[in-house]
Amino acid sequence: MSNPENEKDVSRRDFMKLTIAGISGAIGAAIGLPAIAYIVGPALQKETETWIRLGSVNKVEINTPTLFKTTIETQTGWVNSQEELSAYVLTENGQDFIVMSNVCTHLGCRVRWIPNEESFFCPCHNAVFAKDGAVVDGPPPRPLDQYESKVEDGVLYIKRG
Amino acid sequence: MLAKLGDWLDERFAWRQVWEAIFLRKIPHVNWLYTLGSATLFVAMVQGITGILLTLYYVPSPDQAYDSVMYITTQLPAGWFIRGLHHWGASAMVVLTSLHLLRVFFYGAYKYPREATWITGVVLFLVVIGFGFTGYLLPWDQRAYWATTVGTRIIGVAPGAGEFILKVARGGDNLSAVTLARFFGTHVWVLPATLIGLLLVHLYLVIRIGISAVPNRKEE
């Protein structure tokens, strides 16, 4: 009776097995795939780029890194918080500005400009950076990070994100 | 290769025997109403999975609960979907459990030797209601807040100890951070643990005793 050549010759049991496996797989994918997107979602979100107002360019002293402090609103997940952002601004001619992060490139401590020594010092591992952020001494792997900046109507802005 | 692995595992776990006992057991000729229990179990599993996913972001504190729920719903990819499944699944749980219970009741399937299956089932029904009640507060929006204010107030009407039980349920005189935290703890720890324990007994009994046949109209 049964003919193995015949395609229709699938037993009732095998048909049920295949159907159940198919439906189970579809349901699993319908929940599993969104679940993956849901879990990795926050990691894929791009930070939005914004220009942050640092302050008037008049406050920048020629040839001396000047510290600018500003508070920025940040949103992480569903929590809004205020964060203090500090940056050193250096200019040689009053026209072009270098804005350096005060975060040590070694392990993230905050560096300080010591006027008498004409250098930045990091208190954590005694790193020393030159006026323009270049590494002079200590373990940092690269110079101080710089922000992209612009001047509009005598006000200095930096780009974040 | 796969067959070999199956044999290797079977030699150690005897999983084929377990599989046979669970899925290849003999059942009487029944109708579609007998699938209500399995349907309830399926939705319960969906609730478990989506519930676990929701706890990845949800924060049970008055100042963050609502915001975290909004974050899940509007900011996360598929967050609306996961939350939606959990939301509608909750209603489906109550409906399916009720129908399952009514089927067993009207078919007289709770009688000897299935009394213990029935009793665990009734307690499981109460657990499902408890899930619904505690889960309703968690979004911490106006509806949740006032529904739970009213819902817990009902406890207070009980004679004698009512006022005291009301205070215990709320963790104080009014709905507060304490209420939200204990409803959350109940929703994600106490009730799931109870559910799993009772469910295992319930299913064991279903398999151990077998299911009842459709009652016969004619007297034999």
Structural commentary:
The complex is a heterodimer of chains A (161) and B (220). Chain A has 161 residues and is an alpha+beta fold. Chain A has one helix spanning 12-44, and strands at residues 50-56, 66-76, 79-91, 97-101, 112-114, 119-122, 127-129, 135-137, 146-147, 149-152, 155-160. With 220 residues, chain B is mainly α. The longest helix of chain B is centred in the C-terminal third of the chain and has 33 residues, at 177-209. The N and C termini of chain B lie far apart (54 Å). The mean pLDDT of chain B is 95. Chain A binds chain B through residues 31, 34-35, 37-39, 41-42, 44, 77-79, and chain B through 46, 49-50, 53, 56-57, 59, 64, 67-68, 70-71, 75-79, 81-82, 85.
Helix-strand topology string of chain A: HEEEEEEEEEEE
Largest interface, counted with CB-CB under 8 A?
A: A-B, 12 and 20 residues
Summarize the main sheet of chain B: none
Tertiary shape of chain B: globular
Strand residues, percent of chain B: under 5%
Instruction: Count helical runs of chain A.
Output: 1
Number of DSSP E strands of chain A: 11
Radius of gyration of chain A: 29 Å
Kindly report the spatial arrangement of strands forming the biggest sheet of chain A: 2-3-4-9
SS-derived structural category of chain A:
alpha+beta
Mean pLDDT of chain B: 95
- Distance from first to last alpha carbon of chain A: 73 Å
